[in-house]
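Progress report, Aim 2. The chain analyzed during this reporting quarter is listed below.
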Amino acid sequence: MSATKLNPAPSSTSPHGSSADFAAPWAPIVGQCARGADRVLFALSRQERDLFFPRLSDADLGNLGGWVDTTNLRALAAASPVEGGASPWLRLLRHVRPTVLVSAWTTPMLPEEWTREHDLPLRYVCHLTGSVRGLVRRGVIERGVMVSNWGSTISHTIAEHAMMLVLNMLRNVPAWFPHYSPVPGNVSGKGQVLGTRSLRGRRVGLHGFGAIARELVAMLRPFQVDLAAWSPGVPRALYEEFGVTPLDSLEELFERSDVLIECEGLTPTTAGSVTEAVLRRLPEGAVFVNIGRAAVTDETAVLRLAAEGRIRAALDVYNDAAVAEVFGDTAVPDPLAPPGTRLTGPPLPVMLSPHLAGPTPDACPRSGDFALDNLERYFRGDKPGALISLEVYDRST
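Predicted structure tokens for the chain:
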């Protein structure tokens, strides 16, 4: 069935306003499709739709559910006055009454006015991306609505990025450019000057032991590293299942790590837990890589220790204010910039990547396929994969 104009659901007689009055401005951009007893709404931008479902034609999507382009939704919300206290998004949800919502980065937060209604029709939120905190509040899950995300489908892309940063910093890439010369030089001499190192046999620590950390375990194995980890609340048996040495404290983890990969989730417990005192427990010249959450660490301390030459730091997540506080008005130079564009003075042992660890565009269709599989599970009466429990919700960011 192809997407059609919005029509009132059979049970849509509602005190919230006239469906006819509502449908007219929305009919050009919203489709409706019933699938058995369910009403499925894809609330995605065109870009998200093409990114996650590149092989899905309009007809294919129409067979799954109706689609609202969130770009148009937001534009209309900005242009249209709120009527009777109800935003266009709230009015749309009340009109369509979806039992299943497929969402992504641009999907607006579900309004509390809707999710608290006694006759809430929503049964399942199939989120195409990671964190759901910008979409659903805790109370939605408490009401029994199932919520899933992309699970571990893109964890490998973030782990790959972490490996790239680790290897770059061990080889001291930020210091390379002053040593470029059209005349071949003494290779071993350059290595001594730059302090390049190998990953083989290093002591590597993982702060955090979620899906990304477990991907890293497999990627690090060929380098014959001595691998240890710590994360609050993770049972020792899980570390041992992956052949990782469990440690008893964050301080112990930092003390014994030549390379420390920060991939802990941000919670009230972990926020700011990597203090300057903890960071100073790292061995001299250790590599610190953060592909998790910036606020888990004292960011200023990380950059200050790197500026002192105490550690080498590579960050995929960081606060611009912290960078400015340590380095002033001049940002850390791009390590891949051509010679002549670098700042004066010795190169800093810092690499910043622009929150690019994941997902890579080529990995997004895998997440889309996972979501389609989850929809089929739901329609069959089975539980979808990667469901967000209250415990997972509380640990997420």
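Residues 1-33, 335-344 have pLDDT under 50 and may be disordered. The CA atoms of residues 183 and 190 lie 13 Å apart. These observations will guide the mutagenesis work planned for the next reporting period.
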